[in-house]
Amino acid sequence: MEDLTGATVFFDIGDTLASVTLAPSGDRIARLDVFPYVPGLLRGLRDGGAELGILSDPGPLAPAAVDEALAIAGLADRFRPDLVRYGPKDSPDVFERAAAAAGGERVSFVGEDPGERWSALRAGLSVAPHPLLAVSVLREPGTLRYVRVTVPAGWAGGDWRRVLRGLPVVPVHVTGAGGGTVYAVTTAPVAAHLDGLGLWVDRLGAEDTPLTTDLYLVRDDRRGGAATRDAEDDGTAPVAAGPAARDVLASTLEGLFVAVPAGRSVESLHATDAGHGHNLKLAPSPALLAAATGGPGGRASLVAATAVAAALTPAEQEVLGSRVQPHGVAIHVERYAGTTPAGPDGTVIRSRHVHHPDNAVAVATLVADLERIGGGRLAVERHQFRHEGRTLENVAAELPGRDLDGVVLVTAHLDSTAARSLRYRAPRDPAPGADDDASGLAGVLAAVEAITALDDALRPSRRAVRFVLFNAEEHGLVGSRAYAHQQALLDAPIVAVLQMDMIGHDLRPERTFELHAGFTPAPAVEARSLDLAALVTALQPVVSPALRPAQVYPAGAEGDAAERRSDHSSFHEQGYAALLASEDLFAGPGPAAPPAEMNPDYHLPTDTTVDAGYAADIARLVTAAAWVAATR
Questions:
Q1: Residues in domain Peptidase M28 (predicted)?
Q2: In whole angstroms, how far apart are CA 621 and each of 102, 334, 498, 561, 585?
Q3: Greatest distance between any 2 Cα atoms in the chain
Q4: What's the rounded Cα separation, in Å, for the pair 4 and 387?
């Protein structure tokens, strides 16, 4: 470690040093899960002579509660007490006062929020978007940049992933067959070093671009993935010709790579005719390099699907059939889409958009529902993360395992949007999102009811079953990526992720539906995910015979149209087997498949109703697959 005497580094806590999990009440930290590279990094900085501090906004949490959580996590003694400061970081003044208290010549702030980094820069601090870049910005402030690193065919430099892991290179996106292309944040000198190793390095944007931006992949399905519009114009101009043109760093077959600056929302980039999952937030995650090989040691896989599906007993079938019914699904959809009050106090959820105040109401309602349905048997918690200057929460509830190792996840996203509506004002306008994704949310709540009833009736040996509702899916899978990142760093033994996203629209008589398992960068992950699809397919005639056999993606040489387009893909990126069940969103697979049946009310305020019978059929099937995965 070089001499860092006289330097001071301030860190944010949540999403920077650790993942924050709150108690169901939301007013207490249940635990801090410290990212594994953090203790060694802090030790190295201190050994080099740097002073360490904290600048973190605890929101409604008492500072003493944060101090206690840091102590329990083993981090409290790493920071100089007078440099531990709590409160909003919404102006340069906060950072100026912190720098004055530090008194050194080199003061830096490390945090995941670009708005806070912008304020720190205005106060004269250097900044980094990730802890693994902290030393680099002290050594060479202002040299961070986005890069695209491609491994040429036949590269003779050995294990290129190990090479990248040994350098201050933090990946944000791994793509291509086998994961041979990496988008990352690094320094200009390291980019030059990679050139010298024979890797192909494209510099994206200016040297200081990562300091005050978040990177997004923005798709436009009108032309196969590479153009969109700016919602601040008349709704027709592509980004390349609109106000956001300067923010486009690259145009590829995947879409546009756009550096969205602090103070600007990705909400402003929404193509009128964009398909499901049109944007993806690319957050720094060192684990992406390991996951591209199939996960650390390979994630656990299920046994042969057809055999276990055939063993579904009459007693299991009876409980599934009675507990996952159209009436119950309809009640849940109506409550969360604002058709009926969400609770006994008459509160109506007008929108679940992350910019709307009712998003927090939806989170609180979900916590109450899970505690009520679980009857005290579920461990309910809120997983906290930051996005666009806001603190948001995923909601999780676990039924602890009995005798069998591993965890099965049943998931959906809780947020909504009506961004296809011209001049949509997210903080005020309704976004009922009945199909997208109150239908999936209702499916998860129905799964809770059925699986707890199955457990009560049969008491089998089984794995833990966890029900997770993700926030900010509509802004680029933000909540699920934060959650999957946390789970991978904890090496969570997740054997299956079953996601429901848009399961309520079906007008044609065929009653078709889709299963998506594709993940091109890691064939091993895709293969295990296809095992999940085989399980669901085998269960369908027994559990939901009114449905047609699933359209499974990928099929043969045809790719998966929903790859990286819903929350299941956040787990693919971390090496876990995951599957998306949805209505007929995409054409194919194959020329003989029925045409897509996209909901015409997608991302509009008119998304207010679903076919509850169809949604119940898909939810019952997913629930059955989760139960089989947990008990066989």
A1: 394-612
A2: 58, 22, 11, 22, 18
A3: 73
A4: 32
Whole-angstrom Cα distance, residue 83 to residue 55? 8
d(CA 109, CA 11): 6
DSSP string, 551-597: EEESBTTB--TTTTSSTHHHHHTTT--EEEEESS-S--SSTTSPPP-
Question: How far apart are the C-alpha atoms of 93 and 98, rounded to whole Å?
Answer: 9
- Token reading at 550: 């699933």
Q: Which residue has the higher pLDDT, 447 or 237?
A: 447
Rounded CA separation 573/288 (Å): 6
Domain boundaries, the chain: 7-139, 305-631
Q: How high is the pLDDT of residue 243?
A: 54
Structure tokens at 332: 């849940």
* Selection from 562, 541, 399 nearest residue 473 by Cα: 562
Return the closest-CA partner of residue 236 out of 270, 261, 275, 260. Answer: 270
CA distance 27 to 22: 7
Confidence of residue 72 (pLDDT cuts 50, 70, 90): very high
Query: What does the pLDDT look like over 109-146, one tens digit per residue?
Result: 999 999 999 999 999 999 999 999 999 999 888 789 99
Distance set, CA 447 to CA 267, 308, 387 (Å): 31, 19, 29
Q: How many residues are present in the chain?
A: 632
Q: 7-139 architecture in CATH? A: 3-Layer(aba) Sandwich (3.40)
Query: Which pLDDT does position 292 carry in this prediction?
Result: 53
Q: How far is CA 170 from each of CA 125, 211, 263, 286, rounded to the nearest angstrom?
A: 21, 14, 23, 6
Average pLDDT along the chain: 92
- Angle at which helices 612-631 and 326-336 cross, to 10°: 100
Tokens of residue 392, six digits: 């948001």
Determine the Cα–Cα distance for residues 193 and 490; give it in Å rounded to an integer.
32
CA distances (Å), 151 to each of 176, 181, 206, in order? Answer: 10, 7, 23
Cα 623 from Cα 498, distance rounded (Å): 9
The two tokens of residue 98 are 């912190």
pLDDT of residue 372: 97
Sheet hosting strand 248-251, strand order edge to edge: 248-251, 256-261, 213-218, 279-281
Q: Which tokens belong to 236?
A: 């027709």
| pLDDT tens, residue by residue, 202-261 | 999 999 999 999 999 998 765 443 333 344 433 333 454 455 678 999 999 999 999 999
Cα–Cα distance measured from residue 24 to residue 367, given in angstroms and rounded to the nearest whole number: 6
Over residues 256-293, the pLDDT tens digits come to 999 999 999 998 886 666 678 889 999 999 988 876 55
The DSSP bridge partners found for residue 396 are: 381, 468
The CATH H-level (homologous superfamily) assignment of domain 305-631 is Zn peptidases (3.40.630.10)
Tell me the CB-side half-sphere exposure of residue 225, using CA atoms within 13 A.
Answer: 15
Tokens at 80, concatenated: 């100089």
d(CA 493, CA 468) in angstroms, rounded, equals 15
- Within 221-265, residue ranges assigned H as helices are none
277, 566 in Cβ contact below 8 A? Answer: yes
Asked if 245 and 228 touch (Cβ cutoff 8 Å), the reply is no
Q: How many CB atoms within 10 Å of residue 505?
A: 25
pLDDT tens digits along 89-112? 989 999 999 999 999 889 999 999
Q: Which of 612, 449, 440, 624 is nearest to 540 (CA)?
A: 624
Residue type, 149: V
What is the helix (H) or strand (E) element at residue 456, kind and residue range?
A: helix 439-458
